[in-house]
Amino acid sequence: MARNEEKAQSMLNRFITLKAEEKKKPKERRPYLASECRDLAEADRWRQQIMREIGRKVAEIQNEGLGEHRLRDLNDEINKLIREKSHWERRIVELGGPNYAKHSAKMTDLEGNIIDVPNPSGRGPGYRYFGAAKKLPGVRELFEKPPELRKRRTRYDIYKRIDASYYGYRDEEDGILEKVEGPAEEEMRVRAVEEWKRMEAIRKEARKGAQEVVSVGVGIGAEVLFEEEEDVETNSEAKVNWIT
Question: Long-range contact list for 33-38, CB < 8 A, 24+ apart?
Answer without folding.
Answer: 33/87, 34/84, 34/87, 34/88, 34/90, 34/91, 35/91, 37/88, 37/91, 37/95, 38/95
